[in-house]
Amino acid sequence: MIFTLSDGRSFDTKDVRDISAIKDYGQEKSSIELSRLAFSVYFKTGKSIQISDYYHFSDWAAAKKRLSQIREQIILLREAETKPEAKEES
Q1: Hey, CA dihedral for 47, 20, 50, 25, is it positive or negative?
Q2: Where are the chain's structural domains?
Q3: Is the pTM higher than 0.70?
């Protein structure tokens, strides 16, 4: 299934090999006000993408929740595609 991120990037969940844990990368070098949370999606081709959310210090929990929901959606879609179909008994 094609999964599209809010920034317009998309990928096929059947090509996902692994998904990392969410990591706090701390303050961005380009901004003293924003920090970054992110996780990576690794593909069977060897490529990867990083999915990030930026937050102000007091908004950490909201950013973590948003990223957790996206990560969980990807995991559930990938698992649904890799599970063998249940065979009906006749």
Answers
A1: negative
A2: 2-77
A3: yes
